[in-house]
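In response to reviewer comment 3 from the previous cycle, which asked for concrete evidence that the modeling workflow produces usable outputs, we include below a single protein chain processed end to end. The sequence was submitted unchanged, and the resulting structure tokens are shown without manual editing.
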Amino acid sequence: MTTRRFPTLIAAGLLALGATAALAGGSSAPFEQYQPDPALRTAPKANLEGRVRHACAVVQARMTNASEASLERPCGCYAKQTLRSLDESEIEAYRTTGYFNDSARTKALSALDSCKLQRPV
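The workflow returned the following structure tokens.
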């Protein structure tokens, strides 16, 4: 995954939403060729959490050369903390764009630190 797509991990950010949705990091500037998953618009919050957790596991596994399965617990912590900290406007922005806006990214970075995960470069 390129540095340019990290914000979409989180978030959003990696694999059809997992691959382009959610890990905190990078710029929130719009991605020219990125199209968010239309299912985000109506997905229940629990589904958003699962997508963020999966995206976290994908990115963290690549960054640390660990297995995705070994990151299930810390990425679950990250997804849960991040989504619980977002206000409705931040969640709506995520649903619309497929990645975290600047205010949500700050909260996601805090969750990465709290859950002892590496921050994307």
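The chain has four helices and two strands. We consider this sufficient to address the reviewer's concern, and the full set will be provided in the supplementary archive.
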